[in-house]
Amino acid sequence: MSELPESRGSEKPPKATGPTGSSVASGGSGAGGSAQSPQSSDDKFQNPVAGFGVTFKAMFKKRLTEQYPETPKVTAPRFHGRHQLNRHPDGLEKCIGCELCAWACPADAIYVEGADNTDEERYSPGERYGRVYQINYARCILCGLCIEACPTRALTMTNDFELANTTRESLIYTKDELLAGLEEGMVDSPHAIFPGMDEQDYYRGLVTEVAPGTERQVAVSKGEKPSDRDSESNGSAQGVDA
Ligand code: SF4
Ligand code: SF4
């Protein structure tokens, strides 16, 4: 067993020297030791005053506190919030189920299944529509790449930022939750396209309202009995595609 040198343990650590060559005390309670520099009497007075100066400046600034949720925050007009699947002016859906949004998504947050429209059940003016559409907000980073990729402007983003929830399932928004509501004069899909118009005309903006008789036609296709008022106002329903 080798012996420890006698001098170990009795040696004193060398004194650290400051930039000016003056010695600085080592050790102490702080991470960097309790280095102390001489403080002039001017500094002793000015430092607290400078600290209170910051407080006084803040007292006269506009308050940043948000009274949320009592007063909902107003976002910037182009804020990237919850998505929306848009409709044409007659209520048909703009989504054609092409999946370009899903391919563009860097977070793999979108799931789309397309399907064919038929004359009996038409959800969009063209050949295909989005039968299943889901966005997983546990993954989405609200980057907006999906809305840039959408060729029909079916997918846009709203200003709604209240997406937090307590379960993963509730963060997966389905087509029913994402599809835009019906505006005045729209009729919910499925229904026929505007008589005399084709898919191109929808994208040219030539269809600006629902075709007369569409409401009645939808009611009949569902086996409902149209109301007398509808019968009167939509007496010329024969012109609408079945
Ligand atoms: S906003 Fe970005 S992350 Fe969210 S679904 Fe669209 S592409 Fe994906
Ligand atoms: S939202 Fe747009 S990009 Fe996505 S499937 Fe529908 S049409 Fe295609």
Automatic annotation (TrEMBL):
Keyword Lyase in annotation: no
InterPro entries: 4Fe4S_Fe-S-bd, 4Fe4S_Fe_S_CS, NADH_quinone_OxRdtase_chainI
Cofactor annotation comment: Binds 2 [4Fe-4S] clusters per subunit.
Catalyzed reactions per annotation: a quinone + NADH + 5 H(+)(in) = a quinol + NAD(+) + 4 H(+)(out)
PROSITE patterns tied to this protein: 4FE4S_FER_1 (PS00198), 4FE4S_FER_2 (PS51379)
Domain 4Fe-4S ferredoxin-type: 85-115, 131-160
Subcellular localization(s) per the UniProt record: Cell membrane
EC number assigned by the record: 7.1.1.-
Entry membrane topology: Peripheral membrane protein
Compositional bias segments (type: Low complexity): 17-26
Gene Ontology molecular function, alphabetical: NADH dehydrogenase (quinone) (non-electrogenic) activity
Co-factor requirement: [4Fe-4S] cluster
Segments of this protein annotated with the region Disordered: 1-47, 214-242
Basic and acidic residues: compositionally biased ranges: 1-14, 222-232
Polar residues biased stretches: 233-242
Residues annotated to bind [4Fe-4S] cluster 2: C105, C140, C143, C146
Domain of life from the UniProt record: Bacteria
Keywords for the protein's UniProt record, in alphabetical order: 4Fe-4S, Cell membrane, Iron, Iron-sulfur, Membrane, Metal-binding, NAD, Oxidoreductase, Quinone, Translocase, Ubiquinone
Binding-site list for [4Fe-4S] cluster 1: C95, C98, C101, C150
Membership in a protein family: Belongs to the complex I 23 kDa subunit family.
Role: NDH-1 shuttles electrons from NADH, via FMN and iron-sulfur (Fe-S) centers, to quinones in the respiratory chain. The immediate electron acceptor for the enzyme in this species is believed to be ubiquinone. Couples the redox reaction to proton translocation (for every two electrons transferred, four hydrogen ions are translocated across the cytoplasmic membrane), and thus conserves the redox energy in a proton gradient.
Cross-referenced HAMAP family: NDH1_NuoI
NCBIfam families in UniProt: NuoI, PRK05888.1-3
Identification of the protein by name: NADH-quinone oxidoreductase subunit I
Organism: Streptomyces laculatispora
